[in-house]
Amino acid sequence: MQQILTRANGSQVRITASIMFGRGLTPSVDLYVHHRETKGHPWKLANDRPHPDWRTMSVDDYIKRGRAEIFRLCSHGELFRAGALARLEAGISA
């Protein structure tokens, strides 16, 4: 399942949610976030790791540059919605 979100500044974010099955066929959702500056630019995979010094940053610095790139590009709600839609499309209940 893919969702493309266009931001007010013209940039785009693409959230891809895939259902995976682990041991014992337990379903889980993998989320990937790509972004680009405009429609003419190529997609870039967003990093899911926080800044290496995130533990020593002030709260303001952490919010501005310490969080993982996916959380700077997307809200938690947008990510949860994509995961829920992928589960619904696959017919998997919560």
Polypeptide structure, described:
With 94 residues, this protein is an alpha+beta fold. It is globular and about 40 Å long. A four-stranded antiparallel β-sheet has the order 1-2-3-4. It has one domain (2-90). The chain contains three helices and four strands; from the N terminus they run E-E-E-E-H-H-H. The protein starts with a strand and ends with a helix.
What's a quick, concise take on this entry?
The chain is of the alpha+beta class and 94 residues long.
Content-based structural category: alpha+beta
Question: What is the helical fraction, as a range of percent?
Answer: 25-40%
Count of alpha/pi helices: 3
Please report which band the strand proportion falls in: under 5%, 5-15%, 15-25%, 25-35%, 35-45% or over 45%: 25-35%
Largest sheet: 4 strands, antiparallel
Q: What gap, in angstroms, lies between the N and C termini?
A: 17 Å
Low-confidence stretches: none
Give the count of structural domains: 1
| Average pLDDT level | 91
- Number of DSSP strands? 4
Q: H/E series, N to C?
A: EEEEHHH
Radius of gyration: 15 Å
Characteristic terms for this protein:
alpha+beta, four-stranded antiparallel sheet, 4 strands
Topology:
Layout (H helix, E strand, L loop, with lengths): L1 E5 L5 E10 L5 E10 L7 E2 L13 H8 L2 H5 L2 H15 L4
Antiparallel strand pairs: 1-2, 2-3, 3-4
